[in-house]
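#onboarding

Welcome to the new folks! Below is a worked example of what a typical request in this channel looks like: someone posts a single protein sequence, and someone else replies with the predicted structure as tokens. Don't worry about understanding the tokens yet, we'll cover that in week two.

Example request:
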Amino acid sequence: MPRVRMLLVGAFVAGGSLLTTSLPAAATSATATLSQGTFGFVNPPAATAFPSITLTGADVSANSTQTFDVGDATGSGAGWNITATSTTFTAGSHTLPTTAVTVQSVPTVTCDAGATCTVATNGTSYPYSLPAAATAPTATKIFSSAANTGLGNQTITLVFKLSVPANAFAGNYSSTWTYTLVSGP
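Example response:
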């Protein structure tokens, strides 16, 4: 008899657990409000410095890498662009051509460490020529993030090329570069 009793208790316990799992699920909802954050350079672009160039009697060039750390926490998906302009490279009364600075290839874009981003899809064509004149001319788009891309913090890396003609004068040349981060592609 104890064996029959154990089987009945076992059957009752098993049947009870079946009843528990067969109850209907209760539906509920959850909400979350996401507020618009900021838009801008995470870190301001650093000064661009080209390595020292030795004149050789032939045209020469040098490259300099520039990074732009952009943060788009607006959640709008509006896209954005970086515009650039400059003054002519000048050393005293000597200048380099207004077409001296270019970006020859498509920049790289990576999400910042610790950020899940939607990498910017660039709409700018290359090679790109940095506008230059004695007084900085109208800025042009050096990088353009399409709508619904460029969300989150990311770094754009461009390589600037400074082309120096063979007939350039020796000297310490300088130029003022202006970058602006604008909403919209």
